[in-house]
Amino acid sequence: MTEKEQRPIEEASGERTQASQERRDLKGAYRHIKPVRSDEEDWDVSPEILDMYEQAFKEMEEGEIVKGHVVKVTEGEVLVDVGFKSEGVIPLSEFGENPTVRVGDEVEVFLEKMENQDGLIVLSKQRADFLRVWGTIKDAYDNQKVVEGKLLRRIPGGAVVDLFGVEAFLPGSQIGIRHIQDLSQLIGQTIRVKVIKLNKRRRNVVVSRRIVLEEERERQKQALLAELEKGQIREGVVKNITDFGAFIDLGGIDGLLHITDISWGRVSHPSEMLAIGDKVKVMVVDFDKERDRISLSMKDLTPNPWENVEEKYPVGSRVRGKVVSITDYGAFVELEKGVEGLVHKSEMSWTKHIKHPSKVVAIGETIEAVVLKIDKENEKISLGLKQIEPDPWETLEQRYPEGTRVTGRVRNLTNFGAFVEIEEGIEGLVHISDMSWTKRIRHPSEILKKGDRVDVIVLSIDKESRKISLGLKQIEENPWTRLLEKYAVGSTTKGKIVKMQDRGVVVELEEDVEGFVPLSHLGRENIKKPSEVFEIGDDLPLKVIKIDPDARKILLSVRDYLADQDREEVERYLRKYGPKTMTVGEVVAAKEPNGEAGSEAPGEESQTQEPSEGSEEGPSQSETQGGESGEVPQ
Predict the structure, then answer these.
(1) Is residue 582 exposed (0-12), middle (13-18) or buried (19+ Cβ within 10 Å)?
(2) Under CATH, domain 144-213 is a member of which superfamily?
(3) What is the pTM (predicted TM-score) of this model?
(4) CA-to-CA distance for 275 and 246, rounded, in angstroms?
C-alpha cells in the first residue's frame, strides 16, 4: 500500500482542491491526442501541445477516485476510459452479484496504478465504492448503530453481506444466536447487523447479526418476565432437545419442557414428539423469577386420563392394550395414552414358571388382560394375563383324584426327588422316599433320568399351595408283607455284596431287596474297613437279626450265622476270608447250653442297631462291640 492510499478520508472521498479539478479538466481536453512520431525530426503535433498533454497526466495521482466511461463490456471484464492514454480493465464481478453495466455508463473508480507491466492503467470499482461510503460505515461502527445489509452468498467461515454497496464479512458464529443448519434460507434477505470491526487499509468490514438478535432477545425477555405467571398458556419454539426434555424459546427466555410433561402417555425420548424449530403451545407450571427458570408442560393442556380411571377400567373387567415395555419382573400394557397397567410375570400363566416376560409377550403386541387392582393415587393398575383362561388347579382334584395312575414326563431332577409333568404346565413331585419300596435311593438319577416317561400314582393335591405329590413305588404292591415272612428274624439266607461302607456292607438278597451287615457282624476281627477283606460280588452266608418294614431295613449277620454252623462250615468260611478268628472248639463251646448260639451277651442289643436315619450305614463299631466276649466269630 502506497502513501497515497493512506490519504485522509476527506481527500479519498472526492473532496479535492481547485488545482486538482483544473488538472482533470486539462486531461479531458487532451484525451484524444496521441503522440505519434514519424522520425526524430518530424512530429504530428507541436512540442508545446505534447508537453502540455504529458504534464497533465503526470499530475494525475494514484489513490484518487476518478470518473470514467464504460467503453466495452465482455463476459468477465469491463473496459473503462478515464481520459488516460490507455483504458483500465475492471473485473465484472466488482459491479455486484447481477451487474447491469452498459457501454456509455459513467462510473466512479479508484486509480490504483498509472500503468502496470502491460502498460494498462489499474482501476478498481470496489475500492471506489468502499471509500465513498467509508464515512457512513465508520459512523455506524463508532456509534454502534444497527444498519441493514443484504446477505449475498455463503463463503468458508461465514457469509458476505452487501453493506452500502461494500462487501462485508459476516462470520458464521455471528449469523444467529443458535447455529443455523441451512443458511440458504437467509441468502438474498435484508438483515439487520452491527459493524464490529474495521480496517480501512485492508478494506475489511466485519459485521454481526447475533449481537442485534441478542439485544432484541434481551428486550423481549424483560417484557416477558414482567407479564409471566403460572398457569399461562403461551406459544414457543423448540430451541433444543436433550434426553431429559426440550428447551422452548418463549420469546427472549427459555423454559424447560421435561420429558414427563410432554404427554400423559409414555415418551421414551422427546424427539419422538418434538423437533427443533417446532412451534408448540405450553402451560407455565412453575416460574422462578430470581433464577429465570421456567417449567413448562404440554400434557396439562389436556385432561388427566387418570381422573375417572376406576369407572373406565373396573376391577374384574377385561381390557385390551399394547405392550409398550418389558422388564425382568413383568410387562407394561398401554390401555390408552397416559394409562398403563403392569402384568407381573406371576400373573402370566396358571401352570408355567415364567423366567422372563419376553417368553410370553412382545413389545408392540396387543393383548387381552383382566384388571386385578387399581391404585389411582399412585397411578398404578395391576393386570392379569392368566385370568383370561380358567384356573386348571380348580378342577385338578376332580380330574386326578388320589390314587389315580397317570403317565408323565420327567422334567427335572433334584437331590430330594423328581418333578414329573402330568399335563402341560402341571407338575408333581416324586419324592426320593417314594421311588422304591426296598432300595435306599441316594439320588433320583439312580432310578430316573430327565425326559423319561414314567407311570406314577397321585398321592395328594394341595390346591392352595399348588403342589402335587406323586409316587413311583406305589405302582407296584408293597413287598414288605411278603418280605416279613421270607426274612423273619432268625432265618438264614445268602446275599451278594453290592456296596461297601465304612460301617459295613450292603448286600442284595433278591432283585430290588437289599440288607445291611454291620462291620462287627462280618465274622472278622480287627478290620477297619470291609474292603480290607471283602470285594464287591462276594457271596456271604447270613442270618436275619432285625427287619423293619417302616424304615425299609433288613439287618443281617455273618457272625450269628456261623455260630449256628458245624465245624466244617466254619472252617470253610474262615479259609475263604483269611485266618480264622476262633478255634473249632470255641465254635462248639458257643453252642453249649450256657453259650447257645444266638444268645446275646451283655450289651448285645446294641449290636443290631439299625443304620442311622437317612443313610445306609450301620452302627459304629463302638456300638456293636460293647460287652462282646469274643466267643462268637468277629
Answers:
(1) buried
(2) Nucleic acid-binding proteins (2.40.50.140)
(3) 0.44
(4) 9
